[in-house]
Sequence to fold (327 residues):
Amino acid sequence: MFKAILITKDEAGYQARLQDVDDAVLPEGDVSVDVEFSTLNYKDGLAITGKSPVVRRFPLVPGIDFAGTVSESSNPAWRVGDRVILNGWGVGETHCGGLAQKARVKGEWLVALPKEFTARQAMAIGTAGYTAMLCVLALEKHGIKPADGEILVTGANGGVGSIAIALLARLGYQVVASTGRVAEAEHLKALGAAAVIDRQELSLPAKPLGKERWAGVIDTVGSHTLANACATTRHHGAVAACGLAGGMDFPSSVAPFILRGITLYGIDSVMAPLALRQQAWQRLERDLDVAKLAAITREISLSEALSVAGDLLEGRVRGRVVVDVNR
Fold:
């Protein structure tokens, strides 16, 4: 038996509760992991509250991230005692996830915990930081250099946005942070933002084209914000879209793409191939200032995750939430 948040759906309705769970609840997999830390992401908030149909099988343990130690393995890539992390692959949606003291998964979903990170630090980074790094890699692949101009980061106070700012700033880029919490401007500047703008500047319906400003964009919001970002990106610039906090719609036109030649990169962190995941974590190990993680990280217990999930969806959480599953 182990402690886990378990989501059920039956005649009593949709429920998420902390309880003792038998190993039989865990799905098939060739590697078992003693989980040390997990995280609370936007998707986890949706899963726990039931505000969106994220969970697609019941009962299910939520949690799209975890870090821990291999306890059993029939996969030749992993041995008992190996330190590992997991992000995505439908874990926490269709496969029991990390908001538990134990997990069982496919070995090919795992990545070795970088030597420079503790399990807690890896989860302070989590899917948010890994996604931010995928966005940075997309902009670099496009050829955008620090000398090319400003980089816009939307949803800047969220997990992806916060780590994207820290990464870009350390790499020498001039970052403009867009947020609905402009009172947090000094916090964002401490992470590395050169300037902070109110998200209202990007949230109204977009014109087909606006004044050129951004050499590149990392967007976590979607909807009108993404449309405005594309409309104001400079000739042959790039936008990396990785989130939909503002909506799944994209009320734009083809004008930025055919008149300015900009490129829109879709960032899929869930099903990204292993080689790209490994590259992202290697770059995080090299390029992320772990000292800045403390400023954007809050640690909670497994039981607290149930209430903090609602705060996360309401935009009352800054940065990253790390879950110690053993307290």
